[in-house]
Design goal:
Layout lengths: L7 E2 L3 H10 L1 E4 L3 E7 L7 E5 L7 H18 L7 E7 L8 H14 L6
Parallel strand pairs: 1-4, 4-5
Antiparallel strand pairs: 2-3, 3-5
């Protein structure tokens, strides 16, 4: 079985702020996605955020794991050269992984992030 490539994760605060400030936002019930076309970038970078008012650390990490898994499924089909920030909204804590994946797929389609 072929091992899947790892995706690049945003860890620097300035990239989150750049995506929030200059990027275009797309919103659904459980997720918000901010997309910025990263000039001179060969790879797509993705960041996941869950606000503290979503619950305690255990719940926030559970939501973050579900968002990462949903993105891992969609990752091979996403175009290169973007900065993507995925934010959990209040309804996100009630969703399963498949529901999150469906919402993320719909938002990525709106943002035209999929390869042809």
């Amino acid at each position: 079985m072929e091992k899947a490539k790892k995706f690049s994760v945003i860890k620097e605060n300035h990239l989150f702020l750049k995506a929030y400030g200059k990027g275009k936002g797309y919103v659904s019930d459980g997720l918000a996605v901010y997309v910025l076309h990263g000039r001179n970038r060969q790879r797509t970078f993705v960041g996941f955020t869950v606000s503290k008012n979503r619950g305690n650390a255990v719940l926030r990490n559970k939501i973050r794991r579900r968002m990462r898994e949903a993105y891992r499924i969609l990752y091979p089909f996403v175009k290169d050269g973007y900065i993507i920030v995925i934010v959990a909204r209040s309804a996100c804590s009630n969703y399963s992984s498949t529901e999150l994946c469906e919402q993320m797929h719909g938002l990525f389609r709106k943002a035209a992030l999929f390869k042809d």
